[in-house]
Task: structure prediction
Amino acid sequence: MKYKKAEIMAYAVNGDVVRLPSVPFHFSPGGRSLHRGADITGGIVQRAGWLGLQTVGFEGWQSIHSIELSYPDGTDCNHLFEVNRHFDAPVQDGDWLWFPAMPLVATIYKE
Result:
């Protein structure tokens, strides 16, 4: 399977920023479920998906809190993901790093 490639900016908890050029990636969105409250109100809950990066483990990859993807040819906008770390994730599987992640939507502030 052929994957898209992007420039990765990974932001660690300690303030370090790791830049990885031309990395194949894959994002699988999380599922949605209906939540009903005790007062009969409800809403849809979006679960975290999985963001895979085909790269070797780098120093501090387990402490990444957000990942930014941008395409080198400028054909698409940047994508920002919040990493939802917990005791058994992110994980390394062969030459892939897998992060539980949710896409974030950012807008430009205008007065």
The radius of gyration is 16 Å. Strands lie at 5-12, 17-28, 32-36, 42-46, 49-54, 64-70, 79-83, 91-93, 96-104.
